[in-house]
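Treating backbone geometry as a discrete language has practical consequences that deserve illustration. Part of our work consisted of pairing the sequence of a single chain with a tokenised description of its backbone. We regard such an encoding as a compact summary of how the chain folds. The amino acid sequence and the backbone structure tokens for this protein are reproduced below.
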Amino acid sequence: MPSSTPTSSAPNPSNFDSASSHSGVVAESEGYISITCDDRWEVYHRLQSLDFDCQCSGFQPLTVSLKTPTEAVQLWSILRRVSQPKLVLADSLNRCWRTSTES
């Protein structure tokens, strides 16, 4: 199976801006996001390190239970990190720094 599908009670993942349209992360419908097999394991291990309630086994979907809006944002951030080119992430970070220093 080339991709997996994390499930969650999170807000609609199609609101995850461009992070959901690049690489191996694709918003399918409310509560479901397809992730390539390689990215799935990276996401799973990062979620485990953050003590998320998640499950993943070979040839099975990554399942994530989100309990808070903070967890939804953390999942979005992890998905963005694995799906966006490093240059896009660096540009985004630079814009944030410029915005915070201009305030």
Summary: Confidence is low (pLDDT under 50) at residues 1-23. The chain has one domain: 3-102. The radius of gyration is 14 Å.
